[in-house]
Give the backbone structure.
Amino acid sequence: MNIIVAAIVVFFVFGLMSMAGLGAATLFIPIFYYTGMPLQEAISTGLLLNIVALGFTVPAHVPARTINYRLAFPIALMAMILAPVGAAVSTGTDRDVLLALFAAFLVVSALTMLFYRPSRAWNVARPVEIGTGTVVGGGAGFLAGLIGVGGGAFVLPVLHGIGLDPREASGTTAVVALASSVAAFIARASLGDLDYTFTFVMVIAAALGAAVASRFSIKRLSSKALKQVVAIILLLIAVKIVWDLLR
């Protein structure tokens, strides 16, 4: 993909997704891959863009007090421990297997956007809460290293289910996704599968897109409607990946 065209696409798409509170990697990894970038490099670049997105998201949760730090820290720690493991496994895994796993994650993410509604929380003891959350956080970290996604589609419903209200679950999930994305990106960068010039330009475009988006009122954009559109796009991409794998 031409670097200028890619920067423009990242700027506008990233800005729209930021306004609706959506992650970046899930959409940009297939965009980069299908425009000619090697899969491993697309995963690494998507992870870095995810870090940029979460870098704007997490600070917004701090003054709102929507982060459960007692739960976020152990879960994020487990995510950071397992993210490099996922990255190491990814480099030795067949491309088609990774694509199949990514397609599965796209379907789960899309269905979560379309149908997930917070339900009545379980009444669980504190050790069960931490244990369940930590296991899920470890899975999110492994996924981040393996296929470049933060795993929010899995973490968010579980955190709400074990007792967090929707806003607190969202803030805590953002912290976990940020920690796993950072650890996974560092592990992948050490493996050398990055075009640093392209990546630097994409990060600048993403940051500018998020900064511009933050100046617009969220009321100007229907978050629900945009999530539905993105969910449909993710399902179409998943179908495309599966079709290509079966041909």
